[in-house]
Specification:
Blueprint lengths: L3 H16 L10 H30 L10 H18 L4 H11 L5 H8 L3 H20 L4
């Protein structure tokens, strides 16, 4: 990581995750546990940076006269990152199924074929994605 301040943030976030966990017992391998947390945070950072770059690349395809304001762009990026965090709680196949359906408009059979799973499994994946969206909007169902 080239940016020292980002490395400091990652270090702080790693220890905050460690301190904020529910289990009170110390991990058997503290160093390995910290490395695992840091790797996860680093992966999230790069995934979100790639998401931001993809948005900016798409924005360059739009005529400049139609670009949102800098403030609107920032809000859009915040929303994209929030959606990414939300969908990050799903398995990779569930996330792919949800995005294929909601963004690309693919049907269950085509998604099943692309992912190499059954149509009922695709339905389960979509239900998981919808549930995550519900939780984000309204909180855990009673």
């Amino acid at each position: 990581m080239a940016c020292p301040s980002r490395a400091e943030d990652l270090s702080q976030d790693t220890f905050m995750r460690l301190l904020g966990r529910d289990e009170l017992r110390a991990p058997r391998e503290p160093r390995a546990f910290l490395v695992a947390i840091a790797k996860g945070l680093l992966f999230d950072y790069f995934r979100r940076a790639a998401l931001e770059q993809a948005y900016l690349a798409e924005l360059m395809l739009v005529p400049e006269s139609e670009h949102p304001s800098a403030e609107e762009q920032q809000l859009i990026l915040e929303d994209l990152k929030a959606i990414d965090r939300l969908l990050g709680k799903l398995s990779s196949k569930a996330r792919a199924a949800f995005l294929y359906n909601r963004l690309d408009g693919l049907g269950h059979a085509e998604i099943a074929q692309r992912l190499g799973v059954s149509v009922p499994r695709v339905r389960q994946y979509l239900a998981q994605g919808i549930r995550q969206c519900y939780i984000a909007l309204y909180g855990e169902p009673l």
